[in-house]
Design brief:
The chain has 259 residues and is an alpha/beta fold. The protein has helices spanning 13-16, 45-50, 52-63, 67-80, 89-107, 125-128, 167-175, 192-195, 208-217, 248-251, and strands spanning 2-6, 25-28, 112-114, 133-135, 139-143, 146-151, 154-155, 164-165, 182-185, 196-197, 202-203, 221-224, 234-237, 240-244, 255-258. The structure holds manganese (II) ion.
């Protein structure tokens, strides 16, 4: 069985249309929305709302780890749009997010097995899925005799992305999963080589209970995304081959797994 896997689509709907070509099964590990493009500040929701100069300054602050400065820049940009209360931001943002979801779910191959990234709004997905799109989070499906577990979402972080879970919330999903042949998640296990981003020059959040799960259960494969430019994109942990499927927004190519 040939499985085409994508993650971190971040708005790349044109490439997404072709991502299941030649596959028996198509899997998407989330991060559909493009808020900010660190490589190209001319696109993304922040640029559409606040302009490219603001977006460049905001990216610079976040890249340098100056999250307070980034928040102040953001507050000033919202104020210029007349939005003073942070609780009113979602009204504007959700319209932009919905526009992206319309395009992305139209481009999403079907059938598809999908789970959430941290840059996703789970509550909105059911409104946009098409026939053949299956959202799986914290459970196991069986395809062609291969059991596949899915866990979506990211960890609470200073980046304040839309779908972040506490350590307890994430652990309870991992603990409830049971044994699988292939594990699919958005984030990697917390292994420094897999979580360090060489371009952003910081550690992204992996998850320690995923690492425990891999050591205990030893699925044949663990596929994930999240870290756009990882120090290492694959690593063996015991019998488990851990693989970062790559930054689809940048490559436009799915990772192909033969099982
Ligand atoms: Mn991402």
């Amino acid at each position: 069985m040939r499985i085409n896997v994508v993650s971190d689509v971040h708005g790349a709907d044109d490439a997404l249309k072709l991502a299941a070509d030649g596959a028996d099964l198509f899997v998407c590990l989330g991060d559909l929305i493009l808020f900010l493009d660190y490589d190209d500040p001319s696109q993304g929701i922040y640029t559409e709302l606040f302009g490219e100069d603001h977006t460049r300054a905001y990216i610079e602050a976040r890249t340098a780890g100056r999250f307070e400065d980034a928040r102040e820049l953001s507050a000033a940009a919202w104020a210029r749009r007349g939005v003073l209360d942070p609780s009113e931001r979602w009204h504007t943002l959700s319209a932009q997010v919905r526009r992206q979801y319309e395009r992305l779910f139209a481009a999403m191959p079907s059938p598809a097995l999908m789970t959430f990234g941290n840059v996703d709004v789970p509550d909105l997905w059911p409104e946009y899925v098409r026939p053949g799109h299956r959202i799986i989070d914290g459970s196991v499906v069986n395809e062609g005799g291969v059991s596949m577990g899915f866990i979506g979402g990211g960890m609470v972080s200073p980046m304040r992305t839309p779908h972040e879970l506490t350590a307890e919330q994430y652990a309870s999903k991992v603990e409830g999963l049971g044994p699988v042949d292939v594990l699919f998640t958005h984030i990697p296990p917390s292994v420094p080589e897999l979580t360090y981003d060489t371009v952003a020059r910081r550690f992204e959040f992996g998850n320690p209970t995923l690492l425990e799960y891999i050591r205990d259960v030893q699925p044949a494969f663990h596929l994930f995304g999240h870290v756009h430019q990882p120090l290492r994109s694959r690593m063996r942990i015991g019998r488990t081959e851990c693989i970062n499927v790559g930054h689809f927004h940048a490559t436009g190519r799915p990772f192909v797994l033969d099982v």
